[in-house]
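Materials and Methods. Structural model of 4-hydroxythreonine-4-phosphate dehydrogenase PdxA. The 351-residue sequence of 4-hydroxythreonine-4-phosphate dehydrogenase PdxA from Larkinella punicea was retrieved and submitted for structure prediction as follows.
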Amino acid sequence: MKNEHKPIIGITMGDPASIGPEIAVKALLNPVMYDICRPILVGDARVFEDITSRLKLNAVIHPVASVQDAKFRLGTIDVYDLANVDLATLRFGEISAMAGEAAFASVKTVIDLALADEIDATVTGPINKKSINEAGHHFAGHTEIYAHFTNTKKYGMLLVEDNLKVIHVSTHVSLRQACDLVKKDRILEVIELLHNGLISLGETNLKLGVAGLNPHAGDSGLFGTEDDEEILPAVEEARRRGFDVEGPVPADTLFSKAATGYYGGVVAMYHDQGHIPFKLTGFQWNAAKQQMDSVKGVNITMGLPIIRTSVDHGTAFEIAGKGVASPDAMVLAIESAVQLAKNRRKSLLPA
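The predicted structure was written out as tokens:
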């Protein structure tokens, strides 16, 4: 494949006090990344230079003022330089408005580049929500930032790791509020987002499972009425519209079946219902070393006019700057972005 045919992938710095810059650089030391795409980091070039020098990573940081100036060459890492971090005051693992502002600016910039068709897809590093909010940007997370700046009303968080593909009815709200958000129209909306997401990923198993909210999916109203009054009607309507979908299925049964590939994707009712089984699958904790050996899993925002994938782990402030962070999830996020960009390009070709 000629270089110009490879998708251009914009990758945000994440919080500069986190493992974000480290995993971004480590991921781009993998030759496969340059075989499949043209990656460009977005953030402060000095932050990447510092982490590269500090950890003795074999790469040269190449600051650029435009995407057109990038070299896209293994060993030379292009950075769309925002020059907005004060290295003298930056401290690994510390929450600060300065770090939050820098992280937010990298996200906003990569969104703008994608909307302007200067890049084909975006990948985000981890941010700290408190730092973002201390900087004056009152968003619950990346998903909400993307939805706001792309003027997207219907969207969902899709997690992908091997056989397990999970989308959520609600995410960053209290558990009490999450129960109130279990409504037929929203569930139906998310079923459609999941179906379309699987197609965009090139998946062929389109059988969907919808989790119940209550224990035993309510057990015919004994443990709550939401399963019968909101979830079941949504599933029945989805079937009428042609979707291959089952539910509500008790969550303790649903995810064990989904992990084997029985379902192509599943709908979780709230954040932890989907994230806990997902991270049990993708995260490998080393008890002896007291650290993660591997952190896998990709977060994809469905419903946007642009492509956004992300690592599905946090800032890991406790290990920032120590050189032990795994780039596995970042590599997977970039690979997913490339696949989505290729499939989108195919869908735009004339029949």
